[in-house]
Design a protein that fits this description.
The complex is a heterodimer.
Chain A lengths: L2 H13 L1 E3 L1 H13 L9 E3 L2 E3 L1 H12 L3 E8 L2 E8 L1 H10 L6 H9 L3 H12 L5 H11 L7 H18 L1
Antiparallel strand pairs in A: 1-5, 2-3, 4-5
Helix pairs in contact in A: 1-3, 1-4, 1-5, 2-6, 6-8
Chain B lengths: L6 E10 L3 E7 H7 L2 H4 L21 H19 L10 H10 L8 H8 L3 H10 L3 H7 L5 H9 L6 H7 L5 H14 L8 H6 L1 E4 L2 E5 L3 H19 L2 H22 L9 H7 L5 H6 L2 H10 L6 H11 L5 E4 L3 H13 L4 H4 L1 E7 L17 E3 L5 E3 H4 L1 H6 L4 E8 L1 H5 L4 H11 L3
Parallel strand pairs in B: 4-7
Antiparallel strand pairs in B: 1-2, 3-4, 5-9, 6-9, 7-8
Classes of the chains: A alpha+beta, B alpha+beta.
Chain lengths: ~170, ~425
Amino acid sequence: MFEDHLKVVKVIKEAGEIVGRKKLQKMVYIAKKLDFPFQEKYQFHFYGPYSEELTLRIEELCNLGLIEETKEKVSGYSQYRYSLNAEGENFLEQYGKDIPKLKECVRSMNEQSSRFLELVSTILFFFHLSVDEVKTKIHTLKPKQKYTDEEIQQGYAYIEKLKEIKQ
Amino acid sequence: MTRTLGKLHEEKVFKDPVHRYIHVRDELIWRLIGTREFQRLRRIRQLGTTYLTFHGAEHSRFSHSLGVYEITRRIMNIFQERSDWNPDERMLVLCAALLHDVGHGPFSHSFEKVFQVDHEDFTRDILLGETEVNQVLRLEGEDFPEKVADVIAKTYPNKLVVSLISSQIDADRMDYLLRDAYFTGVSYGNFDIERILRVMRPTDDGVVFKSSGMHAVEDYIMSRYQMYWQVYFHPVTRGAEVILRKILHRAKELYMNGYQFEKDLSHFESIFRGKMPLDDYIRLDEGVMQYYFQIWLDEKDEILQDLCTRFLNRKLFKYTEMVPMADAYQLKELFKEAGIDPEYYLVQDSSSDLPYDFYRPGEQEERLPIQLVKPNGDIAELSRESDVVEAISGKRRTDHKLYYPLDLIEKIENVPLKNKIKEMLHRK
């Protein structure tokens, strides 16, 4: 009944703590694109792929008392922190299933900045295009982020690294 | 760009209950409407299972798509005099407006959930694949189908163009609110669209609204708020969706387990196997789905037969507010003990909506705010000017329900077990 909720709880558990809604969104998207069994539907928004379903799922998990959401003010804007509470730990222990290699990928992604994960998820969104076409898309759709070609190369390299971790 | 199609000799009009008339003067639009893929939208209801709650809600995605096109056409007429608008984008916006829902399938909300497909992928496939729509679009230029796909996917560089089709106040939403209110018969979806269109102004970053039209915009936001909770998230409609999802889920599971269906299953076989070619998808419409629900009434599998009976005869599940997580799992076990498969008969469903949101740097909600332009040229975000909108801004409302078949529970012979289940379902 709560299989999809459990997977999100597992991501937060493996990460320990995730700082920022954008980061959580991108981590789940990247995991989904790596063929981990996430079902949330994503659309392209201003910060790249975004899932309204995941936002709802997280809210449900907060309402059900399984995860903690802490809001804090950081240089003029609100930032959210997500972590598991005892109830969530218990829920996961009782009903959770192992997702091989998820832990390693989630931990690696959690060490990256949300700016970089935004870039990686955007590359994955346009992965069917050639590298040059992806670069053009990134420069046109995200001019304010000013991603350099070097960063885009790092993004591609990181995707390969995650694929290796998953194997 | 190789523009080969021009204007029709005579304007074509469609009579429409919402906009009175839908005007077509461009031959490209006329030809798109005539394609196989667009005509298929006549056989897909705009509101899925809502007709089981509001019996008037039988209108199709075809009429909605024409409505979005018509609103966009009127906006183009207003924008054509403005220096901030590039008239070369006109045909692109009109095509995107007309085709934005062309990839929707039958009962797509449930269909996409069960089979893990996305109508937006099918939209892209229809625009770019070997289809009649693609053939017509290419008459406007080889890269034109790709541009239309980018506008619909919100990846087109011109934000103004994208915002006309997808933003917090766009042609899509304006049409569906008015149309859905009209066909469901509710009174709260209405707002003064003529006024809103008259105060729209183009800018590089999207549309802004003259502040003198603020009350019409407020009315639109409140209509939207009401429609979501009174119509779109109606618990009975959600209950019908739950049964629909479970029918598709059961049929797929039976197929995957080698169950021998009484009748041919050709429309569903590819999707049951996990990959549906575009041609199969286009052949599948609500008429076809309903046909299968009818023939599955004669299947030997009791669950499939029961779920189809419930859907066709509107014998829906009852619902309660969501129970605590631990109780939900205990209920699952009790259902099993009673011989009722919880996989199909105990279903959690949630709805959530954010009626309006303003931009907060660094946050993820990612909604472009509605901007008002004052007489002196200053720009102000809507919720800073409107107390009504401010009251609901950024406030997400969520509703969790648990659905179950009361009739089956009443038939449980073990009375203590039956009472225990009923007591847990109604514990608050």
